[in-house]
Amino acid sequence: MNTDRFKNYKDDVKQLVLGFEAMQRRGDSRYYDVEDLETIIDFYLDTSDGDMLEKSVRYGEKLFPSSNEIRLRRVHLLCFKERYKEAYKLLKQLERIEPDDTDVLYALGVVYSALEQPRKAIQYYHKAAADGYELGIIYGNIADEYLKMDQRAEARNYYRKALKANPDDERALYELANCYDDDGLIDKWIHFYSRFVQEYPYSKVGWFCLGEAYAAEGLYEKAIDAYQYATAIDAEFYYAYMQLASCYNSLGDSNNAVAALHDACKHTQDKAYVYFRIGEVFRFQNNAVTANIYYQKALKEDPLYAEAWHAMSTCYAFLRSYSAAIDAAKRALKIDPESPLFLTTLAMIYCDSGDTENADRIFECAKPYFADFEQGWLALADYNIIFNRYDDAIEALNQGLPDCELVLEFNKRLAYCYYATGRRNMLYNAVRACLMEGDDGVKDLLEFVPELGQDLEVMNIINSHHNDDKTNEDV
C-alpha cells in the first residue's frame, strides 16, 4: 500500500483511515463516533480520493443521518463532483437550521463562486469572516471574486488584507503580484514587496515576488539579489533559479545564466525543459555545437520534445549539416505536423541546402497555417526575393499584411520589391507606410533598401514627411 499519502498526517489519522479501508474491503460494518468519521472523510477530501470520499460520506450518513457535520461533508462531496446546484440546495437547508454556522456560510460562498455569482459569494464570505477565523483564506477568496468582476483595486485591497491576516499565504502573495503586473503598477508592486520582506525577511515567496517586480522594471541586478535571497531561504526553489537565469541572460551574463539553470535542474522533475533552456542560451551565442549537446540531453529525457528537435534543426543548419538539420526538422513535424514555425524552418533549410523543389513544396503545405503566424509570410517573401521572384513575394506580403502586427517588416519588403520591379507609385505608397512608423521606420527602410537613399523622389517624400512633422510640432 502506498503510505506516502499519510506523510503530512499524524499516526492516529493514518490508523483511522487504514482501519476504515480494511472494514470496507471485508464488507464489514462497525461503529465510529462522529468526530472520527469527520476525520476520515476530511482525509479523503484533502487527498482528492473521490471513490473513498463517496464511501465514507455514505457510511457517515448511515450512522448519523441527522448530523449536520456529516451533511456538510456531503456538500463537500457534491462540490468535489462539481454538482454545485445540489450542493446549494443542501446548504440552504443547513443555513435554515444553523444560520450562524461559519462552515456553512463559507461553503455557500464557495458554491456561489462556482455558480458565477460573485456578489453573493462575497456576501457569504463576509458573513463567514464575522468570527475572525481563517481570515487569510476568506479575504483571498473575496479578492478572487472582485477579480471576476474586474474590480481590480478592491481585489488588490483584499489580497493585502489576506496577507495581513496570514503573511505565510503564498497564494495571496503570488496573486497580488499578478494584479500589480497586469495593472502595470510596477512602482506599487516594488514598494509593497520591499516593505513586506523587511517585515518578513524569511518569506521566500515575498523575495521572489520582489524579484519579479524588479525584473518587470528592467532592474535586473536588483532582481538577481531578490531571487538569491529566495534561494538562500529555500535552496530547492526551482522557479527562483529559472528567473535568475532569465535575468543573467538579460544582462548578457551567459555563464551565470547557465549556472543558475544547472542549479534549477537539481530541483525539478522536468529536466528536459531546463536542458532545453541551457541549449537556448548557447544557441543565441551562435555556439551551435554546445547547444545541440543540451538539446540531445533534453531529448533523452523527453523524446517527444518537439521544440528541442526544432531548435536542434536550426543549429545543424547553422553548421551547414543539412541532412541532420532536415532529419531533426522532420522529427519536430512528426510530433506537431501543423506547426507553421516548424514547416517554415524546414522550408528554409531546404532553401539553404539548394533544394528549391522541396522548399517550394513545404511552403505550400505551410501557407494554410500562416493566419496566426505572420513570420511565415515574411519568410516566404524573403525566400522568393532570394530568387528574384518579386511578384510571388508581393503576393505573400499582401496576404499577410491586412492582419499583421509587424507592419514595418511587411512594408519595407514591399518597398524593396516595388523598387526592384520599377513600380514607382506602389513604391511611394510603401515608403509612406514605412514613414508612419516614425524615425525607426525611416532608418529600417533605408538599411533594408539602401539604394533608396540615392533615389531623389523617395528622399523628397521622406524629407517632406519630416518637414511636415516639424511644422506640426512648431504649431
Secondary structure layout plus pairing:
Blueprint (H helix, E strand, L loop, with lengths): L10 H16 L7 H13 L3 H14 L4 H13 L3 H14 L4 H13 L3 H11 L6 H14 L3 H14 L4 H13 L3 H14 L4 H13 L3 H14 L4 H13 L3 H12 L5 H13 L4 H14 L4 H13 L3 H14 L4 H14 L2 H11 L7 H13 L3 H11 L6 H15 L2 H12 L3 H10 L7 H19 L1
Task: Give a verbal description of the structure.
The protein has 27 helices and no strands. Helix 4 (68-80) runs parallel beside helix 6, helix 5 runs antiparallel to helix 6 and helix 9 (152-165) packs antiparallel against helix 10. It has a domain at 1-81. The model is unreliable at 471-475 (pLDDT under 50). By secondary structure, the protein is mainly α. The longest helix is centred in the C-terminal third of the chain and has 19 residues, at 456-474.
The multimeric state of the shown protein is single chain
Helix content: over 70%
Mean pLDDT, as a whole number? 93
N-to-C order of helices and strands: HHHHHHHHHHHHHHHHHHHHHHHHHHH
Looking at the structure, what is the overall shape?
elongated
Radius of gyration: 31 Å
Hey, roughly how much beta strand do the residues contain? Answer: under 5%
Q: Structural class of the helix and strand makeup?
A: mainly alpha
Distance between the termini: 82 Å
In brief:
With 475 residues, the protein is mainly α. It is 76% helix and 0% strand.
List keywords for this structure.
475 residues; mainly alpha; disordered C terminus
